[in-house]
Amino acid sequence: MAGALTFLLIGCLLKGVLCEEFMVTLPKTIEVLKGSCVTIPCSFEIQRRFQHNLDNTCKTIWKNKDEVIFTSDNPNLITTKEMTGDLTRKNCTTTFNNLYLDHTNDYYFRLQCDNQLKWNFHDASVNIIVKADPPSPTLTPSTLEETEGTSVRLKCSAPAPCLSQPPTLTWTPGLGVSQETLQENQDKTKVMTSVLTFTASHLHHGKTISCTATYNKQDGSPSSSAHSVLTADISCELTSPLLKNTVIELIPCFACV
Ligand SMILES: *[C@@H]1O[C@H](CO)[C@@H](O)[C@H](O)[C@H]1NC(C)=O
Predict the structure, then answer these.
(1) What is the best residue among 39, 91, 92, 164 to mutate for testing ligand 1's pocket, by most ligand atoms within 8 Å of CB?
(2) By the 8 A CB rule, do 42 and 166 touch?
(3) Which end of the chain is more exposed for a tag (fewer CB within 10 A), N or C?
């Protein structure tokens, strides 16, 4: 009996959905570029007895430390805001436009309907960090050590917090074909990814390969960019006819031509 109770309790703590308690799901942190926008992926659960109160009188309010910041009624209170999610489907996804540095804060979601349903979701908040410069994109692998002739696959990823203006990714030099896709992280935030594929050649040895992420702004200021680099280390496979396919030595390619 006690065991079953414990199980139920743990079940409730793990999954508010089962117990239908008030609960919000938000990313912990989102880094945003000044003059750009952020879409906050947001979903929530409410107690079953309030289910019928969830109608189109409901509004989204975002607060920082109990100061009302963004409401559906007055979207221009500080900056423009767009509700993108459907509250009746428990989707509180919201876009904040044209952010300033001092918008950096922890934001809480409040649901407010013209009936008994009003709730501050204090169980989670999202930390929005507005920065003057974009983050450097992530290059994987971070080092390129290959033998000549192998097919190389490099991945470059840059956060895409503003869905209307995702970053563009550029490879220099353009060594081969690249493909860009918008992917979703586990916390539902988005990331732009470009995969570059090419065949390693001794001509690439010692070359610097860079990936640049360029972000456009909403406030009319010039776009800003950040880049990451790696140096190609391409070696040759010297095989002996006697020891077929056995690698005897790996040496930098400039030495084996
Ligand atoms: C919530 O709404 C946004 C914006 O319309 C949409 O992109 C997202 O897929 C929705 N989430 C869910 C879980 O339906």
Answers:
(1) 91
(2) no
(3) N
